[in-house]
Specification:
The complex is a heterotrimer of chains A (264), B (318) and C (319). Chain A is α+β, with helices and mostly antiparallel strands and 264 residues long. Chain A is built from nine helices and six strands; from the N terminus they run H-H-H-E-H-E-H-E-E-H-H-H-H-E-E. A two-stranded parallel ribbon of chain A has the order 1-2. In chain A, strands 3-4 form a two-stranded antiparallel sheet. The longest helix of chain A has 18 residues. In chain B, helix 4 runs antiparallel to helix 5, helix 5 runs parallel beside helix 12 and helix 8 packs antiparallel against helix 10. With 318 residues, chain B is mostly helical. Chain C has 319 residues and is an all-alpha fold. Chain C has two domains: 72 residues, no CATH class; 226 residues, MetI-like fold (Orthogonal Bundle). The N and C termini of chain C lie close together (8 Å). Classes of the chains: A alpha+beta (264), B mainly alpha (318), C mainly alpha (319). Chains in contact: A-B, B-C. The interface between B and C is large, with 44 and 54 residues.
């Protein structure tokens, strides 16, 4: 697994060589010089100088530390690597380097990544398939091109409409879908469909029944959506209104909100 | 670059790979800061001198010709039976029984240093083990251990120490054990707090994710990261232990006479301070010098391990 | 909240029970013979047996313990073997002395410790800071009895020789009887206590103040143009004092149990001296009484400190 925080995910008291070799030591795969050889090989693989084997994490930059994390994840030749927001804490230019590294490694080593991120542009660049979650439940799963072109779940549609557009004229002309209220507390999730308090298309059925994750309408089996009333092509969510009462001034956990928190 | 398999490549790899550069870890950096701190250096030197003096006590006794328990009623006491002041024969004077004060002070140093260091080491080991277990394991183990530490901390120390010593008799070992018993919980509490917060750090999660077991995580990941405050605390516990021992000796509960202890000498000197100023002065100075040196060294160690503590506004190391 | 309190209270009672039990067991494990001590050196075996019987020491151990607990629950702490006075009366008569000593000393060490700590925090690494640290440390490094003796020597003995009798070397004068005398007799003991304890407080205040002074809201106050003094004292000190108050609570709790050494050195008839006496005379009821009082103070102090924390910081409350 590759972790998010390049500063916190490496033990400051251990040398990077020892950190990268940890999986090898724990599982008894290699010891002594063989382990060191393997670690230095991994370091070269991720773009680090193997001479720095005995250096401490504090002596590396953020991007380099993240490479150490990747090397550690690769130590046992995995087939799947979970990347938990691996570039969120990095500078934008470094971000590109690390993403390129990950892509290159994927090609060379035939890897599969479970890549977690908040950044929609990164997701678009990196993914083959995308799964979007809301409040702990899967909302929609689709191949990347399809998701970005034709999202079916209202939440996903709103999310995508919120991505900043570089061209100011285009941005002005675009209608953003504004969701009412704030996300409720995950400790007390809403009944039925968890998105119903904020969904512009919510109806009575959404409150009673949690929608299953199945393909809807004309979508193929590779594009399931968890929504009773998925977005149809040509639909303008920005001007839709829900058919039920939504606690627009109050979050689900009962705390009153300051008026005006939903305005853009 | 493609991944090659180990084996045949290992031989030429060993030749091809350059020697790794040594890194400078947190301990090395702290050490560099420490040895530039004049107060810390002075304290350390003082302690070394005291330790050497303590070790050399028999040699000094031999050189001067007086043992620590030898009484010299004729040359060591005035005709009135009072102690004799510093002179050529008795460099620091004598005590109320005509014993050479210098030699007794040196032998007393052995007791003080031994009790201080051994009691602190015992307390630290116990405290670290219990605190680490409590902080890492959490749940019922933590509950039981924490409550136990709270209980020990709730005892009225001196009172119970007195009671314990009066029950089991006074001896060197008892003194050390008593002092250690009342100090370990303080370390344990600090260690537990540290372990609890370190446990939440991402590198611990990373260790779990590669399959490290509890023991490995505790000793490789958590322990090195909490040693810094423990080290500071231990360095500051030694003088507290020495003072505790002196207090016990003063009350007559420490190492039994005629073994010389600083506290005991101070206690004996009470009746004579009006006529023999050297009698309380020199043991008192020795005690003060030792404890002050440890305290200043402890402060220096703390500053070396966490230089941000001295600056208003703090600062990270990034 | 109430459950939190109840749990801590129960735990405190548990501690008291265990402590008293420990003392009880210790007493009987030790080679001792209070009957002999009381009966005197020349007593015959019969007399000793009689005394034993009267004190109830010849009954089996569990029975003695059971009767002890029973009486304890009724508030009866028994009678001293040594002086036959009721233990509770002894404790009550000694308490004001110890309280005067502890509280007076606390005022002094707080004033000095916090003062030095704040001054040091305002000018870190300066002469004030370093000098203050060394001075405080000197006090901390000395055993209490040594400080006491030094003070007696210099401020009593030497001055006495010169004809000045400002600082009596000991004894206690009740407050109600003569306030001036009360203070005068307690002056040296207060200074002794303060000298030894101030260092911890100055260190704590200093590090706490340094942390607080680095906060953004202090920077805001300064940029509003407030005088430095006002910034430090009105805005900074308030938050910096939290750990100090915590430590104070715990220290007072410990001290109120009897400042043995100081009371010995200055001849003050307080709980500490009583405790010491009772151990040397193997006076079990009094030993247990003093240990219980001391433990109670500590437990209560800990409880108050925990309570204070929970009130001040909502995050600490178990929800």
């Amino acid at each position: 697994m590759v972790f998010q925080d390049p500063y916190g995910s490496l033990n400051p008291h251990r040398r990077v060589g020892s950190i990268i070799g940890d999986p090898l030591a724990v599982h008894g795969v290699a010891g002594g010089p063989a382990r060191r050889w393997r670690v230095q090989e991994l370091m070269e693989l991720v773009g680090l100088n193997p001479e720095h084997y005995n250096r401490y994490p504090a002596e590396f930059s953020g991007g380099q530390r993240q490479r150490v994390g990747v090397a550690r994840a690769l130590a046992l030749r995995p087939r799947l690597i979970v990347c938990d927001e691996p570039v969120s804490a990095l500078d934008v230019s470094i971000r590109a380097q690390i993403l390129n590294l990950l892509a290159e490694l994927q090609r060379e080593l035939d890897l599969t990544y479970l890549f977690i991120s908040h950044d929609l542009s990164v997701v678009r660049q990196v993914s083959d398939r995308v799964a979007v979650m809301y409040l702990g439940k899967l909302a929609e799963v689709a191949p990347v091109a399809e998701l970005y072109r034709r999202p079916r779940h209202p939440y996903v549609a709103a999310l995508l409409s919120a991505v900043p557009v570089a061209d100011p004229d285009l941005a002005d002309r675009r209608e953003r879908i504004i969701l009412a209220g704030d996300p409720p507390s995950p400790i007390h999730p809403p009944a039925g469909c968890r998105f119903h308090p904020r969904c512009p298309k919510a109806r009575a059925r959404c409150v009673d029944e949690a929608p299953p994750l199945v393909s809807r309408g004309g979508d193929g089996a590779s594009h399931p959506t968890a929504c009773h009333f998925p977005v149809e092509p040509g639909e303008d969510l920005a001007h839709e209104h829900a058919a039920i009462d939504q606690p627009d001034q109050e979050a689900a956990d009962g705390l009153p909100r300051v008026a005006g928190s939903t305005t853009p | 670059m493609t991944v090659t398999a180990p084996g045949q490549a290992a031989a030429d790899a060993a030749a091809a790979r350059p020697e790794a550069i040594q890194g400078r870890g947190p301990w090395r950096l702290a050490w560099e800061r420490l040895h530039r701190d004049p107060v810390a250096i002075a304290s350390a030197v003082t302690l070394v001198v005291i330790a050497v003096a303590a070790v050399a006590a028999p040699a000094v006794a031999h050189a001067v010709g007086h043992g620590p328990d030898d009484q010299y009623p004729t040359i060591g006491l005035t005709p009135a039976g009072l102690p004799v002041g510093p002179s050529q024969t008795f460099l620091l004077g004598t005590d109320n029984l005509g014993r050479d004060l210098l030699v007794r002070i040196l032998y007393g140093a052995r007791i003080s240093l031994m009790v201080g260091v051994v009691a602190t080491v015992l307390a630290t080991v116990a405290g670290v083990v219990v605190g680490l277990a409590a902080g890492y394991l959490g749940g019922p183990a933590d509950l039981v251990l924490s409550r136990f530490m709270d209980m020990v901390l709730s005892f009225p120390y001196l009172l119970l120490a007195i009671a314990l010593v009066s029950v089991f008799g006074s001896s060197l070992t008892i003194s050390m054990l008593v002092i250690a018993f009342f100090s370990w919980a303080a370390i344990g509490r600090v260690v537990r707090g540290q372990a609890l917060s370190i446990r939440e750090k991402e590198y611990v999660e990373a260790s779990w994710s590669v399959g490290s077991g509890a023991m490995r995580v505790m000793f490789v990941d958590i322990l090195p990261n909490l040693l810094a405050p423990v080290l500071v605390l231990a360095t500051l516990l030694v003088p507290a232990a020495i003072v505790f021992e002196a207090t016990l000796s003063f009350l007559g509960l420490g190492v039994p006479p005629p073994t010389p202890t600083w506290g005991g000498m101070l206690s004996d000197s009470l009746a004579f301070y009006q006529v023999a100023w050297w009698f309380p002065l020199f043991p008192g100075l020795a005690l003060l010098a030792t404890t002050l040196a440890f305290n200043l060294l402890g402060d220096g160690v703390r500053d070396a391990l966490d230089p941000t503590a001295g600056r208003a506004g703090g600062g990270g190391d990034r | 909240m109430a459950r939190f309190l109840a749990r801590r209270l129960l735990f405190g009672l548990l501690v008291l029970w265990i402590v008293s039990g420990a003392v009880f067991v210790l007493f009987f494990v030790a080679p001792h013979d209070p009957a002999r001590l009381i009966a005197g050196k020349l007593a015959t075996p019969q007399t000793i047996a009689l005394v034993n019987h009267r004190l109830g020491l010849d009954r089996p151990l569990p029975e003695q313990y059971a009767s002890f607990i029973w009486r304890l629950l009724h508030g009866d702490l028994g009678y001293s073997y040594y002086s036959n006075a009721p233990v509770s009366q002894l404790l009550a008569s000694r308490l004001p002395v110890t309280v005067s000593l502890a509280l007076g000393g606390a005022v002094l060490w707080l004033a000095v410790g916090i003062g030095v700590g704040v001054a040091a925090a305002r000018r870190p690494r300066s002469l004030v800071d370093r000098g203050g640290a060394v001075l405080m440390l000197a006090g901390l490094s000395m055993p209490t009895f040594l400080v006491g003796l030094l003070l007696i020597y210099f401020l009593f003995f030497r001055l006495h020789l010169a004809g000045i009798t400002w600082f009596p070397p000991g004894g206690y004068v009740p407050l109600a009887q003569d306030p001036a005398g009360w203070a005068q007799h307690l002056l040296l003991p207060w200074v002794t206590l303060a000298a030894v304890t101030a260092a911890t407080y100055s260190r704590l205040t200093r590090s706490s103040m340094l942390e607080v002074l680095g906060e953004d809201y202090i920077r805001t106050a300064r940029s509003k143009g407030l005088s430095e003094d006002r910034v430090v004292y009105r805005h900074g000190l308030r938050s910096a004092l939290t750990p100090v108050v915590t430590l104070l609570g715990i220290d007072l709790g410990t001290l109120l149990g009897g400042v043995i050494v100081t009371e010995q050195v200055f001849g003050l008839p307080g709980l500490g001296q009583l405790a010491w006496q009772s151990v040397t005379t193997q006076d079990l009821p009094v030993i247990i009484g003093t240990v219980l009082v001391a433990s109670t103070f500590i437990v209560v102090a800990n409880l108050l400190v925990d309570l204070g924390y929970a009130l001040l910081d909502p995050r600490v409350r178990p929800s």
